[in-house]
Amino acid sequence: MGSADGGELDRLLEEQVTYYRSLAPDYLDRGLDLPGGQELTEALEAFRPTGSVLELACGPGTWTRQLLRHAADVTAVDASPEMLAIAAARMSDHRVRFIQADLFTWMPDRRYDVVFIGFWLSHVPLERFESFWAMVAGCLEDDGRVFFADDAYRTPDELIEGPSSAVIRRRLDDGTSYRIVKVPHRPADLHERLRRLGWNIAVTATSGPFYWGAGGRDSVHQAQH
Ligand SMILES: C[S@@+](CC[C@H](N)C(=O)[O-])C[C@H]1O[C@@H](n2cnc3c(N)ncnc32)[C@H](O)[C@@H]1O
Q1: β-strands 210-217, 199-205: how paired?
Q2: pTM across the whole model
Q3: Would you list the domain boundaries of the chain?
Q4: Which is the closest atom of ligand 1 to the Cα of 102?
Q5: What are phi and psi of 167, to 5 degrees?
Q6: In CATH, what class is 6-217?
Q7: Is residue 57 in contact with ligand 1, taking CB distance under 6 Å?
Q8: For the segment 122-170, what is each residue's pLDDT rounded down to a tens digit?
């Protein structure tokens, strides 16, 4: 990945949190207005995230309202108190519980029917990919389901370490810049990477830079290719 390991990786992940904490007030105005976004919404609608849903890296609650169309309850986790405050202000629903936590160390206190991951997987460095998915497994009921949506969109000026590195630079409107992780997963490779970890998750490309995945543990879910 040409990035970092050990303490350097921890520092990069802290910088990533700082970036999103600073971006929180402007985050909802900065959505990627590119083809394919509506396809994600439709795919999540078809998936029907029913039961108790865990939303990882919820941000300002971008997806929480759609999840609540199907879910009995939603537990939404994010590291940024600023993001969580915005999410809480937008969502006055007693079925939502917010938790502030670092997903690289957080341990769930119960299991869920569905884990939903919106635009977070690409920010998980490959060095932490396996441990992240072990955590997801620990969050799920045996027959639990997973849905994720994400993109592989990186602009040339962001690629400070070149296109083969997952480390990029993002700038805020005030000119401050931060290093963050943005892994440009390709759907087929991501499906295979997950399969090697015991997941059966069909990963589907949209007509734009977005993709979505739906499935669960290999033993209970059949690929939907
Ligand atoms: C790209 S945003 C996604 C937000 C929302 N899910 C969406 O789809 O719009 C990434 C989110 O991850 C959160 N985040 C960054 N590092 C984190 C960490 N280590 N643990 C938990 N959340 C983190 C940020 O605060 C931010 O809300």
Answers
A1: antiparallel
A2: 0.94
A3: 6-217
A4: 20
A5: -90, 125
A6: alpha beta
A7: yes
A8: 999 999 999 999 999 999 999 999 999 999 989 999 999 999 999 999 9
